[in-house]
């Protein structure tokens, strides 16, 4: 199959010309904008805290609820006099890390389940996929909150929680891919020369499903960041004083008329990053699967 | 074939249809001229992408609107009441009033050409309601007559059927009923039998011929099946890479084709003839239709032609030359080829 | 059609059974279990806890507990709230109306607006409108619902004073107009995501349909453009949208929870959040199961409607 070769990274110069998918991706204007914003926001969150003179936990009772652009606090302060910009940066670290880690975890679970279900088919596949269907019957937020109430909220447990409620989509995608791939010539050929199941699954079949997995992973990051913001906003996610974009908004509602920037600033950060990941995912889909060009 | 010269229904002159795409302008047809008379069948013959379908779609404004598609030339259509309409450059609203009323089309795919969510009756009644302003009741009554006319059994029951409940042949009959609903002066049949079984093909062809006789409409029959051409056509127009390469009455085209491409098409037909070895090989024309964005210089058929002469055939596009009354061919070596053929015969 | 729907019903029952297992597992396998609320209170000694365990049947083997739980679930005994000892079913019944009102109106709104945007986007493909709509939909899908809710409250309630900032009706009032007035804000907020989804899928569905042969046939018959759109294209393009709407129920329920919280809308979502914060497990479990049930019913309803709308399936049983 020719598709096996298309994802082997080229080492020689002229990568853009040798990999048409990459060229299509680079030409996707919205995806490139998204990528730039994501990189900027990451840089902002990772490097930012070393640059500005405030800490996310420093309270200053004398300058509470200071409006943005009025003084030393560029984005103003909250009800405890903490610098919004500093909190936004530290919160960004948490939110981005939660989004990424949860995605890695949910991809792992989803790919594994999909791979096993698609490869073995029959009863194993049926049972696993019906389980996936059943999990998807629960509205994600309900499931997140029900479990979040039972466990001790920490950054780690929130990551696991988000991953556990978001792996089903990938499992479906991978299962469908593997099911159609495993009857193709190259898989049968590998089987006929006596390759083991594990080898066929991971070396022969999985590389062919990379494109949809990459797209799903990108969209999953967007989903995970949103999920974190939802449960943190509702009070069951990342717990203060650790800031996250979601829990920064938790208290903003009470100060909506007095200090709207407290709601505006983290909201825009979430929206920017999530939109960007969605655009990147869209661009990747167009680039990796030209048939779907719409 | 036609004893008296009947009045023309459609007269096309120098039809040029060009598509503007990202990678440049593609000329789908160039300098296409022809005419069809009342009660006459003109067969349009050629391979895929030779421009035969585009010609007809373009005339009726069914190609994409400008700037995506530019149409040049002239096309005069005479409706049954004697009004003459210029089709080229006509606003879409005017063309729309002619489509389905004065000129109808039957498409190749009966399986997908009918709307799956409407009943057969609704789809036949639609043009009647639009063009004739019939009431729903009157249109349905007429639809029933039409179903009977296209020889569908138990028409009353079929009226309420959905397309998926009918066979391919029946769906094509329904398409024909839709097309002839408003008694058009011109019927364009775009490979109407290609998707059907051979026995059904014959029935549909017979139906079309009978309908044509009854209503005296002109018919343009697009096909790449020369067997059908011999059966149904009065005159033939052969197209290659967007140009007319030969046209004439059906008998001379079949018995004495002049352009090498037409000969090639005829040679690729299986036939049982006295004096011809039974197991003689069918001759396929070598090569493929040229890429529409990169036509070869000179005669577009040159690269595939047995009679290709370098320096001559690739220097200029040959004109369409009158070879006999009512017969024309596009080739620079007509006489040489004719002589050679005459010697060998 | 009958066989198709029977098959789907059977599938749904299997799913419901799996859903019940997952729900039971979440409740019992989590640290602390159903009584963690009391245990965490610290006011109980070991004997009290054992007595409570016995009272709730928690000392028996898990499979027995599961069967008993399912049995009671099936006859409508979903337990009593820890908070006020009311039956869970009665509590849910008291809140579901507000949630359905919100979900149905916002779905209607999003079908109208999103559908129209999708149709125009497909017809005027690659136009400025199409580009703006595409980017707009993507942004709408990325805005956290609660944040959009806060923005609507800030602009229309705090700043302009046009809309009430929350609740389903003015205390002691409750006329029809008053209720509509209260519904506008949450309805718009909940409709945002659905509208974006409708506009995207409707556009792509329309693009599929526009390129179908039967549209060309309609044009060749001389059908006027607007009639082609309404009578031929949209009718067909709406068919897959029925499925999409059915699949959107889980997201809609999630959105309703957040919207109800922001607008203090007395629906099931807010009840769920309140119950979670009180660790009122019977209610939490009840709503969790009920929401899964709604999702299953939603997808069944979508299949039924699809079967009724598409003559190819409707006539299959004949």
Question: What does this protein structure show overall?
Answer:
- The complex is a heterotrimer of chains A (294), B (345) and C (318).
- Chain A is mostly helical and 294 residues long.
- Chain A contains 13 helices and no strands.
- The longest helix of chain A is centred in the middle third of the chain and has 37 residues, at 84-120.
- In chain B, a hairpin with a 2-residue loop joins β1 and β2.
- Helices cover 77% and strands 0% of the residues of chain C.
- Chain C is built from 14 helices and no strands.
- The radius of gyration of chain C is 24 Å and the shape is globular.
- The mean pLDDT of chain C is 86.
- Classes of the chains: A mainly alpha (294), B alpha/beta (345), C mainly alpha (318).
- Chains in contact: A-C, B-C.
Task: Give a short summary of the structure.
The complex is a heterotrimer of chains A (294), B (345) and C (318). Chain A has helices spanning 15-18, 20-27, 29-51, 84-120, 122-135, 140-150, 155-164, 168-181, 185-192, 197-205, 210-233, 245-250, 261-288. Chain A is mainly α.
Question: Which characteristics define this entry?
Answer:
heterotrimer; A: 294 residues; mainly alpha; 13 helices; 67% helix; disordered N terminus; B: alpha/beta; eight-stranded mixed beta sheet; four-stranded antiparallel beta sheet; 12 helices; 32% helix
Order of helices and strands of chain C: HHHHHHHHHHHHHH
Number of helical runs of chain B?
A: 12
Class by alpha and beta content of chain B: alpha/beta
Low-confidence stretches of chain B: none
Mean pLDDT of chain B, to the nearest integer, reads 85
Oligomer: heterotrimer
Shape of chain B: globular
Main beta-sheet annotation of chain B? 8 strands, mixed
Strand content of chain C: under 5%
The percent of residues in helical segments of chain B reads 25-40%
pLDDT averaged over residues of chain C: 86
Strand content of chain B: 15-25%
Please write out the topology:
The complex is a heterotrimer of chains A (294), B (345) and C (318).
Chain A lengths: L14 H4 L1 H8 L1 H23 L32 H37 L1 H14 L4 H11 L4 H10 L3 H14 L3 H8 L4 H9 L4 H24 L11 H6 L10 H28 L6
Chain B lengths: L7 E14 L2 E14 L3 E5 L6 H8 L9 E10 L5 E3 L5 H7 L4 E4 L3 H4 L6 H12 L4 H14 L5 H4 L9 H13 L5 E5 L7 H18 L2 E6 L2 H7 L2 E6 L2 E7 H6 L4 H8 L52 E5 L2 E4 L3 H11 L1
Parallel strand pairs in B: 3-8, 3-9, 6-7, 7-8
Antiparallel strand pairs in B: 1-2, 1-4, 4-5, 9-10, 10-12, 11-12
Helix pairs in contact in B: 4-5, 4-7, 5-7, 7-8
Chain C lengths: L1 H28 L6 H6 L4 H10 L6 H13 L13 H36 L4 H15 L2 H15 L16 H35 L2 H8 L4 H23 L1 H14 L5 H10 L3 H29 L1 H4 L4
Helix pairs in contact in C: 1-4, 1-13, 5-6, 5-8, 5-13, 6-8, 7-8, 7-11, 8-10, 8-11, 9-10, 10-13, 11-12, 12-13
């Amino acid at each position: 199959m020719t598709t096996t070769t298309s994802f082997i990274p080229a080492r020689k110069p002229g990568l853009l010309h040798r990999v048409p998918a990459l060229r299509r991706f680079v030409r996707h204007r919205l995806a490139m904008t998204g990528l730039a914003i994501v990189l900027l926001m990451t840089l902002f969150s990772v490097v930012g805290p070393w640059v500005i003179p405030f800490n996310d936990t420093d309270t200053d009772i004398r300058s509470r609820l200071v409006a943005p652009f009025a003084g030393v606090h560029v984005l103003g302060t909250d009800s405890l006099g903490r610098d919004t910009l500093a909190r936004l940066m530290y919160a960004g670290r948490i939110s981005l890390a939660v989004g990424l880690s949860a995605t890695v975890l949910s991809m792992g679970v989803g790919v594994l389940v999909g791979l096993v279900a698609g490869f073995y088919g029959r009863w194993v596949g049926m049972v696993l996929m019906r389980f996936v269907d059943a999990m998807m019957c629960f509205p994600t937020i309900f499931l997140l909150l029900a479990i979040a109430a039972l466990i001790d909220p920490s950054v780690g447990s929130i990551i696991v929680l988000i991953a556990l409620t978001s792996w089903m989509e990938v499992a479906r995608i991978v299962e469908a891919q593997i099911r159609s791939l495993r009857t193709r010539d190259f898989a049968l050929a590998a089987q006929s020369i006596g390759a083991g199941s594990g080898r066929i699954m991971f070396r022969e079949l999985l590389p062919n499903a990379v494109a949809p997995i990459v797209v799903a992973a990108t969209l999953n990051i967007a989903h995970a960041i949103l999920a974190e913001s939802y449960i943190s906003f509702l009070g069951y996610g990342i717990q203060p004083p650790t800031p996250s974009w979601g829990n920064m908004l938790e208290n903003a509602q009470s100060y909506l008329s007095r200090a709207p920037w407290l709601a505006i600033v983290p909201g825009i950060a979430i929206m920017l990053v999530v939109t960007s990941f969605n655009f990147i995912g869209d661009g990747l889909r167009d680039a990796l699967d030209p048939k779907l060009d719409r | 074939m036609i004893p008296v010269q009947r009045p023309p229904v459609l007269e096309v002159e120098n039809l040029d249809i060009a598509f503007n795409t990202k990678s440049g302008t593609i000329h789908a047809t160039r300098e296409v001229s022809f005419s069809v008379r009342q009660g006459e069948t003109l067969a349009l013959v050629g391979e895929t992408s030779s421009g035969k379908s585009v010609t007809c779609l373009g005339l009726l404004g069914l190609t994409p609107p400008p700037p995506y598609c530019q149409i040049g030339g002239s096309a005069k259509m005479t409706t049954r009441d004697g009004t003459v309409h210029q089709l080229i450059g006509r606003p879409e609203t005017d063309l729309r009033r002619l489509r389905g009323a004065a000129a109808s089309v039957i498409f190749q795919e009966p399986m997908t050409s009918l709307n799956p969510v409407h009943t057969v009756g609704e789809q036949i009644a639609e043009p009647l309601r639009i063009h004739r302003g019939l009431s729903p009741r009157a249109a349905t009554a007429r639809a029933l007559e039409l179903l009977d006319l296209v020889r569908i059994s138990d028409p009353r029951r079929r009226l309420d059927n959905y397309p998926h409940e009918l066979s391919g042949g029946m769906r094509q009959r329904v398409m024909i009923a839709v097309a002839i609903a408003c008694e058009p002066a011109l019927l364009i049949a775009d490979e109407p039998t290609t998707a059907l079984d051979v026995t059904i093909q014959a029935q549909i062809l017979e139906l079309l011929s009978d309908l044509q006789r009854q209503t005296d409409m002109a018919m343009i029959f697009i096909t790449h099946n020369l067997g059908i051409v011999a059966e149904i056509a009065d005159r033939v127009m052969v197209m290659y890479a967007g140009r007319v390469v030969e046209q004439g009455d059906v008998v001379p085209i079949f018995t004495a084709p002049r352009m090498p491409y037409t000969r090639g098409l005829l040679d690729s037909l299986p036939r049982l003839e006295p004096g011809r070895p039974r197991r003689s090989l069918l001759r396929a024309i070598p090569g493929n239709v040229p890429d529409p964005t990169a036509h070869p210089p000179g005669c577009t058929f040159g690269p595939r032609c047995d009679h290709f002469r370098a320096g001559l055939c690739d220097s200029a596009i040959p004109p369409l030359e009158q070879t006999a009354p009512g017969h024309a061919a596009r080739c620079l070596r007509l006489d040489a080829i004719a002589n050679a053929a005459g010697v060998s015969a | 059609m009958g066989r198709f729907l029977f098959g789907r019903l059977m599938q749904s029952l299997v799913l419901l059974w799996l859903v019940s297992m997952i729900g039971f597992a979440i409740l019992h396998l989590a640290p602390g279990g159903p009584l963690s609320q009391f245990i965490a209170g610290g006011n109980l000694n070991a004997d009290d806890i054992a007595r409570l365990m016995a009272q709730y049947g928690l000392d028996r083997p898990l499979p027995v507990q599961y069967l008993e739980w399912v049995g009671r679930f099936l006859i409508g005994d979903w337990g009593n709230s820890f908070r006020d000892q009311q039956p869970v079913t009665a509590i849910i019944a008291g809140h579901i109306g507000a949630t359905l009102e919100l979900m149905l109106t916002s779905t209607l709104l999003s079908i109208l607006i999103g559908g129209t945007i999708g149709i125009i986007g497909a017809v005027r493909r690659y136009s400025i409108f199409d580009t703006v709509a595409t980017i707009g939909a993507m942004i709408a899908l990325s805005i956290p619902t609660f944040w959009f809710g806060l923005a609507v409250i800030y602009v229309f309630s705090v700043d302009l004073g046009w809309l009430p900032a929350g609740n389903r009706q003015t205390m002691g009032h409750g006329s029809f107009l008053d209720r509509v007035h209260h519904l506008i804000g949450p309805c718009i907020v909940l409709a945002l995501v659905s509208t974006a989804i409708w506009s995207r899928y409707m556009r792509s569905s329309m693009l599929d349909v526009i390129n179908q042969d039967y549209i060309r046939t309609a044009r060749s018959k001389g059908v006027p453009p607007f009639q082609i759109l309404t009578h031929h294209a949209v009718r067909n393009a709406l068919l897959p949208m029925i499925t999409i709407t059915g699949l959107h129920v889980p997201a809609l329920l999630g959105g309703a929870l957040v919207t109800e919280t922001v607008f203090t809308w007395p629906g099931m979502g807010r009840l769920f959040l309140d119950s979670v914060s009180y660790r009122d497990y019977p209610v939490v479990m009840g709503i969790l199961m009920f929401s899964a049930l709604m999702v299953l019913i939603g997808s069944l309803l979508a299949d039924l409607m699809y079967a009724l709308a598409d003559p190819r399936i409707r006539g299959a049983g004949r």
